[in-house]
Write a structure and sequence with these properties.
The structure is a single chain. By secondary structure, the protein is mainly α. It has helices spanning 2-13, 15-34, 44-47, 59-66, 82-97, 99-105, 109-138, 147-178, 183-193, 196-209, 213-236, 272-281, 283-291, 297-300, 307-328, 331-340, 352-387, 394-417; strands at residues 238-245, 248-250, 253-255, 259-265, 343-344. 69% of the residues lie in helices and 5% in strands. Strand 2 (248-250) and strand 3 (253-255) form a beta hairpin.
């Protein structure tokens, strides 16, 4: 902790880093102000029923956690950056299926800017669709006297929701350009951290009830510490594949001959598989809330504290983990690049044997990371089912918070290392 504060102090001693840190803080303040501005024509009191503990298995409870309570308060940032995240995922998938997008991705900075622009357009389209979905879910909280007034209010509500998402996307891009860390991740981090006082209040209310809670509350705190330590360890864990480059003589100079490695992170997909799985597994609970089917036996088994929910959630996390890794990691391309540069893995023949070796190793490491993410995600669910405490989303939020904090501090550390400052990640 002492080195952490030393790093922050050294960063503020540098004018350019101090400017970036203060700019990031300013964006976070603007984000939190926007999270308190209500959307017109919606009654926040009625909206809170959708994210109550009894309905936490639906997607609304999950979104409310990621938005820092902005959804339950019916504010302009109620949709958070979920349309942008979904748009980014869709574009990543399409770059594999559409040759034109694949060519853009390989065109360097110009191509990336074009893809970013396409992602913004898709974000707005998804924002309108999600805003319409929200309006359908919230129509009981909108009071209208005639159909024309109802249409007008629907347009205003959907437009404000979409504009809030677009503004959050822009704020995130400003952090990327002028601040520290990944902008979208920083905003998610700020939203989740804003719920910490409420979480402490909830644990305090459990403690005051006495009885078995005198054991449950300390157990939860110990579990949080253990989970954070495990996330930090697994986030830094990686498998290094040794690579040896052959020597070659060009004119009078000798090139190559050095040894290096290819790092494969255990949790290279981050928290994305959990976000995908959470969205899908929450669909039955969301249908229950939208259409009032609380007595339907099929939907009851998908309650967020049920064993069916936990099993499906766990399997989806593992499946999406492999899916996401396959998108981002291409063993065949890595093997070809090594062969073109006269490099190779010791003991493995170049070409297809190298590609097969990397693929096998990648799948094994991915399995370890997937099992870790799955256990972290369902552990709070199982704890909620056994103790009755409403902490089902605790694993997901801890993964996001710790992951974003480590990545941001690593960026800060790298910039300070270039200026010969020592930090806490050395």
């Amino acid at each position: 902790m002492q080195k952490f504060f030393e790093t922050i102090r050294n960063a503020f001693a540098l004018p350019d880093l101090r400017k970036k840190l203060l700019y990031t803080l300013l964006i976070i303040i603007i984000f939190r102000i926007g999270a308190a501005i209500p959307v017109p024509f919606i009654d926040p009191a009625s909206l809170k029923a959708l994210v109550s503990p009894t309905n936490a298995g639906g997607i609304f409870g999950y979104i409310d956690v990621l938005t820092g309570g902005a959804f339950s308060k019916a504010t302009i940032f109620a949709m958070s950056v979920t349309p942008y995240i979904n748009a980014s995922i869709i574009i990543q998938l399409l770059t594999i299926a559409i040759p034109a997008l694949e060519r853009l991705q390989k065109e360097g900075e110009v191509g990336r800017k074009k893809i970013a622009q396409i992602t913004r357009y898709v974000t707005v389209i998804l924002g309108v669709m999600q805003g319409l979905f929200y309006y359908i879910a919230l129509h009981n909280t909108v009071i209208s006297t005639n159909i024309f007034e109802s249409i007008w209010k629907a347009i205003v509500i959907i437009a404000v929701f979409t504009a809030g998402t677009a503004l959050m996307m822009w704020l995130g891009e400003q952090i990327n350009e002028k601040g520290i860390g990944n902008g979208i991740s920083i905003l998610l981090f700020a939203g989740i951290i804003s719920r910490v006082p409420a979480a402490w209040g909830y644990l305090g209310s459990l403690w005051t009830l006495g009885g078995k809670n005198y054991v449950i509350v300390p157990a939860i705190l110990v579990l949080v510490i253990v989970v954070v330590a495990a996330i930090v360890f697994m986030n830094n864990a990686e498998r290094r594949i040794p690579v040896q480059y052959a020597k070659r003589v060009v004119g009078r100079k000798m090139y190559g001959g050095q040894s290096t490695f290819i790092p494969i992170k255990v949790t290279m997909s981050g928290v994305m598989p959990i976000i995908f799985a959470s969205s899908i597994v929450a669909i039955p609970g969301t249908i229950t809330q939208l259409f009032g089917l609380q007595n339907n036996w099929f939907l009851k088994i998908f309650n967020y504290t049920g064993w069916v929910y936990a099993i499906i959630y766990f399997v989806l996390i593992i499946g999406f983990n492999y899916f996401y890794v396959n998108i981002q990691y291409n063993p065949h391309e890595i093997a070809n690049n090594l062969k073109k540069n006269n490099g190779g893995i010791p003991g493995i023949r170049p070409g297809k044997p190298t590609s097969d070796f990397i693929k096998r190793l990648l799948y094994r490491i991915t399995l370890i990371g997937a099992l870790f993410l799955g256990v972290i995600a369902i552990m709070p669910i199982l704890l909620s089912a056994t103790t009755g405490a409403n902490i089902a989303l605790g694993g997901t939020t801890l993964l996001i918070v710790v992951g974003v904090a480590l990545d941001t501090m690593r960026q800060l550390e790298s910039q300070m290392m270039m200026r010969h400052y020592k930090g806490f990640l050395e």
